[in-house]
Amino acid sequence: MSVVVLALLIISLVTAAVLMVAMLVKDKPFYGGIGLCVLLGPGAVLTFWYTALSWG
Known about the structure:
With 56 residues, the protein is an all-alpha fold. It is 91% helix and 0% strand. It is flat. The model has no long low-confidence stretch (mean pLDDT 78).
C-alpha cells in the first residue's frame, strides 16, 4: 500500500513539474495554474476553475 502511495506522489510531482516547464516554454499561464493545482490538491483545482470561469 505504501509503495502505491509513493508512486502516486511521484507521478503527481512529475506531472506538476512538466506542466510548469510547459508553461515556460509555450508561454501559457493556464498550464502553470493547473500545475499548482496538482500540487495543492482537489480543493485548489475547484477554486482555480471557479476563478477562471468567473473572470471569463
